[in-house]
Write a structure and sequence with these properties.
It is built from 5 helices and no strands. By secondary structure, it is mainly alpha-helical.
């Protein structure tokens, strides 16, 4: 029977923590502890990330479409439009590796950033009385909410200081523009 990647990572962490850490000089222990934390984070990411990306990427592609519609399809940068088409085709391709999914996710994040900048510029030129009712403003708020929610989904395994570790979790939710 072959050990899974999780079993191998757990074995390496256990060996480093139990066998190596006690013999490492005091001034180098923090480096080894950081390495142990990184190995734990890798196992968590390998375990959770594929499913998370399968959920996040379609949400992001939908939001890119909404942003382009809010900007007016004729006013959208043609490179951004082409990127959206390529990302959609790539996502629909079966049998992608995790590294390909991560690259696709990163590319879509760049596209959303570009569109958020364009939406912000469009909002800045709108008459003051229309800004609160603007479709561009609503889509921009949705961009920020989506990116925040996606980042929060990774916090438990990526954060050096996970929620509740140093400070007790707050019952007061954070709010941003457009939360209602």
């Amino acid at each position: 029977m072959t050990a899974s990647v999780f079993e191998r990572l757990a074995g390496i962490r256990q060996f480093l923590g139990n066998e190596i850490l006690p013999s490492v000089a005091d001034d180098k222990r923090s480096d080894l502890r950081a390495t142990l934390k990184m190995l734990e984070d890798m196992a968590n990411e390998i375990d959770r990330l594929p499913e998370l990306l399968e959920l996040e990427i379609p949400e992001m592609l939908h939001l890119c479409n909404a942003a382009m519609a809010a900007l007016g399809w004729n006013g959208v940068d043609q490179e951004d439009l082409q990127s959206l088409k390529e990302f959609s085709l790539e996502f629909d391709r079966p049998g992608k590796l995790l590294s390909e999914m991560q690259t696709l996710h990163s590319g879509i994040c760049v596209l959303i950033s570009n569109l958020a900048i364009q939406l912000t510029a469009k909002i800045a030129t709108e008459p003051e009385g229309q800004k609160c009712l603007s479709g561009s403003r609503v889509v921009l708020a949705k961009c920020y909410r989506l990116l925040r929610r996606q980042a929060e989904a990774r916090t438990p395994w990526q954060s050096v200081f996970p929620r509740g570790r140093l400070y007790p979790a707050s019952d007061t939710p954070t709010r941003t523009i457009g939360d209602g």
